[in-house]
Amino acid sequence: MIYILKNRILKGIVTKHIGPSLSKEIELVGLGLKSLIQKRFGRSLHIRQVDTGSCGACESEIISANNPIYDLQRFGISFVASPRHADALLVTGPVSKNMLIALKKTYEAMPEPKFVITCGDCALDGGLFKDSYYVCGAVKNILPVALHIPGCPPSPLDIIQVLLTFLRKKEQ
Amino acid sequence: MGCSEVISNIKKSLPDFSALSVFQNYADEICIKVSPQVFKNVCLALHKMLPSPIMMLFAVDERKFSGVFVVNAVLVDLKQRQWIIVNMDIPQENPCFDSLARNMYSATLFEREIKEMFGIEPKGNPNLRRLNLHDEVWPEGNFPLRKDFKEMNSGSLGEYKFNRVEGGGIFEVPVGPVHAGIIGPGHFRFSVAGEPIVNLEIRLGFTHRGVEKLFEGKSCVDAIRFAECISGDAVFAYSVAFVSAAEKISGILIPQKAAYLRGIFLELERMYNHVNDIGGMALDVGFSFPAAYASLIKEAILQLNEKLTASRYLKKVNVIGGVSIDIDQTKKIMLLDSLKKIQKDFNELVKMLNFSVSFMDRVDTTGTLIRKTAQDLGVVGLIARASGIPADLRKYFPGVYNQVKFKMITRAGGDALSRLELRFYEFVESCRMIEEFTAKLAEGLDIKVNSVLKQASALGYVEGARGPVLCWLKVDSNGVIQRCKIVDPSSHNWQGLSYAVLGNIIPDFPLCNKSFNLSYPGNDL
Fold first, then answer.
1. pTM exceeds cut of 0.80
2. Distance of residue B7 Cα from the nearest chain A Cα, in angstroms
3. Ramachandran region of residue B60, left (φ > 0), alpha (ψ -120 to 50) or beta?
4. Which of A3, A61, A100 sits opposite B348 (nearest CB)?
5. Domain A2-171, what architecture?
6. Is the pLDDT of residue A15 over 90?
């Protein structure tokens, strides 16, 4: 316990410890996002993530976006364990045949209103895997996709920024 | 040990054995061609003699050239520091061979894969259910890794049959493929009597993307970028395994400085994976502060990677013949500074976990994989070392690790605590080795050489964060890939997990799972 307290005090708030320009960027982007989400989804945006055959790098970056430095949750965006609790479905990977049913079922399990976000180059059109015998390719041919976050993998900051731009457009 | 010694050793257990051909393919690779009748016995003799699990077992479709399928079994001789590849030709009419699975468990999954991908029957294998091509979506009679496979033909679909545990009070808990966390997909079926798990069946293959088929027809240069996208947290290990196979084929030796740089990047990758797993274990028992603390360390390493190579996951660093990114004086200072901070933070993380009695109580004796079981299953890499098996390619095939004081670490317990402690020590060891490598980097030297590929095959290997990543590569005279077989350490180790959880309760499963932290995409390909 003593070490936890010690490190809690010594570390302080880590968002201030990273470079000032980056930190400011996150603040600006994130605060804008928060007010938009409040208007659109009441208080917060809940996301359910589904991996349809990604290499794991996108997952790693999505998890990083939730770490104390980027801390997506302070802006009202949280990742939930069940599609029943979700407003948005975040899909990664080129959609392996084996995941097609699971992907559709997860989407069907979500309550309305709902929208789909794709994350990473594979989810856009199959990426490097698009010619494979076992890949269904573009998520947009399977579900109605509202937003794509490009990158291989997109960095945590990319993820936050793209979400903001999208929600701002929705607003207008 | 040269070819003749290997043969005479095999003869000790198989007196009337004779090979069709034996040759030293490379300094660390011996190829033995045998007839299909003795293939099983030769593999078995080597398996006992070395001793080595089946590290790889795979088929190559050579019907166009010689009218046969070639099946290769790869075993490793750690003492003599070489790989032994036993192969045989199987005629294309009713292709089949005698199954090794009843005698060597480590061959089981590979045989199932050969059956579903090539339609070659391993006669006598008691379990030939499909692995990656799920029965529910892939019709019978389509064998995608055959060269003449064009597209999927329709046919009858089937259903996967799980092993059933029956009896009073037994119930099943199915989990997945979509899990609660942000993680890859897999299906876990627990059979539970009261609280303890009596059986766990893991069904994988959900992230199957046909990686091995996509390699075929690519040039080696293009394929490096592709190899980097197979398993997102082992990007550098995969690219090293791939390019080292290509380098063996072209017969070049990379410059010493490039080898140091690869050493640095490999260890950086190991560090961020280990700290990620340590944090994951804390998170999965609800100990959130150290988990968040570990995520800061991981982020620091990823940002360091980005500053060094412009990629958080070390993509686009490797080229055939060396590396494309140098570490100059300024980067060197930055690297050493960052490492010091990372090391300091890491020590605090270790203290936080070590001094928490409830956390230690939770990991101690949880998810034990005993040494005997680990050996029988052919478990490799970090998981094997945590069960007391001395297996680390960095020790037995040192390469650049000869230049630094590398110490292999093992733990005897085989439980979650052993795997946790192993990661503690390996992290510190990696940190130290990076400092040693960095000190050896001289200014201005070459970091890559040119290479010309020829028609040949070779085995590339490297010890990644989870264990040995193996890549067997065959190219034609234009440098176009004919076949590329990848084996991730996870494909050996998933079975270990299903034994480690027996007798534990389901609430401890996330902890056991995280302490193994196996790759879904690396296993499913």
1. yes
2. 41
3. beta
4. A3
5. 3-Layer(aba) Sandwich (3.40)
6. no
